[in-house]
Amino acid sequence: MKKEKPAKRFHVSDLETLRALADPLRIQILELLEDKPLTVKQVAEKLGLAPSKLYYHFGTLEKLGLIEVAETRMVANMVEKTYVSAAGGLEVDPNLFKFSRESDNEPFNILLASTIDATREDIIRSLQARQFQLDQGAAEKERRMIINRVISHVPEKRIEEFQERLVKLLKEFEAEDKTSKSTDQPYAMTVAFYPSFYFEKTVKKGKKK
């Protein structure tokens, strides 16, 4: 049975916590634990990594309160812990993102790098894992992967419309269908929608060129 996701979202309000969440591997751990309780070994198997590479990250996420131990049992004279997600998603305090031309704008760099890096790592791992499945005799099935970057001149009066449609689509994609099962193929979506500026000289009124 699929685990019911926690309703409360984790609020990131300080730079130190944001730094701790910047590692794309930790993002992938959190995403896996959103579906069902797993041990470090089980997560490592899904990511194609050695468990020894994950213990530190699990410890950090547990210390932050993002994951918690759901069950502890003895396996071959060793304590094995099963972890679950303790939050229903992440939300970052907007006050952390106050852009300044004089500073290094670390919060912006962390958020962008972690999102892009996690997406890249997820795509590469997915391709490798799927090839492994095919090598093991899994049935072939054609699926679409869309990666695109488009810049378009859009009238400002239509921006709000685009944003509302995009937010609606994201909410629809994130919401689980009543008929969905844990065995259904997961899909990932990364979105960036923003005004794109270039450096251009402007002539102030009242001054000659």
Please mark out the parts with pLDDT under 50 across 5 or more consecutive residues, or reply none.
none
The number of helices is: 6
Helix content: 40-55%
> Beta fraction of the residues?
5-15%
- Average pLDDT rating: 87
In whole angstroms, the N-to-C terminal distance is: 71 Å
**Main pleated-sheet profile:** 3 strands, antiparallel
> Architecture of the domain at 10-139, according to CATH?
Orthogonal Bundle
Shape: globular
Strand-pairing-aware structural class: alpha+beta
Entry keywords:
about 210 residues; alpha+beta; Arc Repressor Mutant, subunit A; about 40% helix; about 10% strand
Describe the structure.
It is a single chain. With 209 residues, the chain is an alpha+beta fold. It has a domain of 130 residues: Arc Repressor Mutant, subunit A, CATH 1.10.10.10. 41% of the residues lie in helices and 12% in strands. It has six helices and five strands. The strands form two sheets. It has a three-stranded antiparallel β-sheet. The protein has a two-stranded parallel sheet with strand order 1-5. β3 and β4 form a beta hairpin. α2 crosses α5. The radius of gyration is 21 Å and the shape is globular. The N and C termini lie far apart (71 Å). The model has no long low-confidence stretch (mean pLDDT 87).
